[in-house]
Amino acid sequence: MDRLNEILRQLGISKVKLAKLLGVSRQMIYNYLELEDINKWPKDKKVMLLNLLGIKSPEELNDIKVDTDYIMRVEARIDNLFSDNIQEDTEAKNLTKSAMFDGLAKKQKEVMYNIIEVMREKLDDEHDEETYQIFLYLYHYIQSINTNPELKYILAYTSKAVGFTQPDKFVFDRENQFDFESILFSAITLYKSGGYSKKRISEAHHKFVEQIEYRKEEALSRTVELTSAKEQALKELGYNEITEENAAEVFNKIGEIHARKVTD
Length: 264
Prior knowledge:
By secondary structure, this protein is mainly alpha-helical. It has 12 helices and no strands. Helices cover 69% and strands 0% of the residues. The longest helix is centred in the C-terminal third of the chain and has 40 residues, at 198-237. It starts with a helix and ends with a helix.
């Protein structure tokens, strides 16, 4: 069963997704995967799983090589068998009708639903602090995704590296994405080989920390400056707070105050 779990992980098929594909509950999938032999599964579910993986017997699991071609073949089988039925799942149907999905097209709803399902499965253990931190960082990542294009390139690189996307596919700026992926591959290869200077790495990380601290201080300074200008503007105009009625006047006064400081 370890080999099956490894193959499913490499294919990106979560327990939630597998449950949907086999038409059983998530808990039932957990029960199946706890059995030491696939032959102990219900016959119809075993056959469905083998067909999904493109093999005729459990013994062939060890012969499976999860590469890009294999992943694409499995995904094609999933698409052919189940793509038209994704909305038939009652829970999915209810969820995609919720206000959260208003205004989204079908494929956007599907990817959002799949993300939520994977997160719910992974976060099932409330004591798993590491998984919680992973998704907290992911949340931060998504919030920052438009701050620079390299964050998008990292997502594309990861999808290619694990076999979900063809390596020659570029959906963003092709030239820049190509360069970034090549540099990132070189960096990861160097990291895995261990062929780098610990001293230089330590120096680089120190610069990384310094840059972050500088940005924080800069942001704090701008906040303090804006707050000070706002308070001065309110005082000069004789107001106690910004309201809908005086907002335009106060903002113009803040701009004037900033202009004064530049010319002083």
